[in-house]
Amino acid sequence: MQENYDVELLTDQGQTRGVGFEIEYAGVPLWRAARIVQGLFGGNVEERSKAEWYVVETSLGSFRLEIDAEPVKKLVSGIDRGSDATADGFERLLRKTADAAGDVVASISEKIAPLEIIAPPVPIEKIEELDKLREALFYENAKDTQASLHHAFGLHINPDAISLKSENILKHIQAFALLYPMLKNEHNVDFSRRITLFIEPYSTEYLNHIMADGYAPTQEQLICDYHRFNKSRNKALDMLPLFSELDKELVRELYGADEKINARPTYHYRLPNCEVSNGDWSLMKEWQRWLLIERLASNDEELSRLRDEWREQPTVFTERMRVAGTPKADKLASAGGA
C-alpha cells in the first residue's frame, strides 16, 4: 500500500487515523458470523436480539452484526424485550413463543434484507488484518451483490478526516465529485446498486455551487449549502456523519430528528460493491480507490486544474473521466501532493 500511495496516517492534530468498514452480505447467519469474528480476533459474543449481535473486547475493538433493516431490528427487539418474564407456567410459555417468533422474523428477514458487519475503526496499517474477515466470509460461501438482482450490497468505508477544517473538507467533496464518473467504473458498481437511491451522485446544481471560483464557506455555510442541494443522506459520499460531528444541533435542525445519523469525524463513502464471493476482491483494493480522493484533495494544483476543466465543459469533462479508467487513476495516484 505505502509504496503506491502516500497515506496520511495522522490527523492534523497528530492523532492516529482510523478507518471503519461496513460489509453488507447474505448467506451466513449472524450467529455464525459472530463466531467467525471471535475466532479471528478473540473477544466475547453477545446476542442483543435475534437481529443484533456484538463481538466485544476483540484485538481490534467491538464489532456489531445486524440485519440492516431498522423496522426488523425494532420488531425483533420488541419481541425479545417481551420475553424477559421469569415466572412459571403461562409466562414461561409466552417467553418460548416470543423466542420462536423472534427466530422466525430474523430468519425470514435474513433472506430479504442485507446482513451487515460493522467493524470498529482500525489504524490504517491494520486494514490487511481486517481483510482476514473478508477472506473467512468467502470460504463460508457468503453471498454478495452479484448473487441476485435484489442484493444491492455495498461496502461502506469510513475514514477519519485528515482535518476538520472547512477548507479541507470542501476539497474532499470537490475531489470526490470530480472523480465520481471514474470511480464508478473503478469500483465496477453493480447494476442492482446503480438503480437504487442509496448511492446517488451529487447534482449538477451542487457541483456548480461548490466548484465556483471564490467559494470558501464557513463551517455553517458548508453544512447549510450541502443541505440545500442534498436533502437525503443517500449519497455515494454521505457527509452527514462528519457534519453532525461538527455541529449536531444544526444538522438535526436541517434534517429532522428521525433521520438516522451517527455523528463521527469520518467521511461515509458508500460507492464500492461488496464482492465477498470473489476471491480476488479485498478491502485493501477498495481502500486504495478511496485514496484517489484523498490524493487529489491534497494536490491543490491538480484539483484547481480539474475544477477549471469541469467549469468550462462539464459534460465533456464528465465523459472524459468516465472513460479514463485505470490509466487516469494511476496518474492521480502517482501525482505529487501539495
Task: Using brief descriptors, characterize the structure shown.
single chain; 338 residues; alpha+beta; seven-stranded antiparallel β-sheet; two-stranded antiparallel sheet; globular; disordered N terminus
Report the total helices: 13
The gross shape turns out to be: globular
Helix content: 40-55%
Which residues form runs of ≥5 with pLDDT under 50? 1-5, 70-76, 81-102, 104-110, 326-330, 333-338
Query: What structural class results from the helix and strand content?
Result: alpha+beta
Using the CA coordinates, give the radius of gyration.
21 Å
SSE string, helices as H and strands as E = EHEEEHHEEHEHHHHEHHEHHH
Q: What is the number of beta strands?
A: 9
The quaternary structure here is single chain
Report the biggest beta sheet as strand number plus sense, adding barrel if it closes.
Answer: 7 strands, antiparallel
- End-to-end distance, in Å? 20 Å
Strand content: 5-15%
- Global mean pLDDT: 83
Q: How would you describe this structure to a colleague?
A:
By secondary structure, the chain is of the alpha+beta class. Helices cover 49% and strands 12% of the residues. It has 13 helices and nine strands. It has helices at 30-41, 70-81, 90-112, 127-139, 166-186, 191-194, 204-210, 219-229, 240-246, 248-255, 283-297, 300-312, 314-334; strands at residues 18-25, 44-49, 52-56, 63-67, 115-118, 122-123, 155-159, 237-238, 268-269. Strands 1, 2, 3, 4, 5, 6 and 7 form a seven-stranded antiparallel sheet that branches. The chain has a two-stranded antiparallel ribbon with strand order 8-9. Helix 8 runs parallel beside helix 10. The protein starts with 17 loop residues before the first strand and ends with a helix.
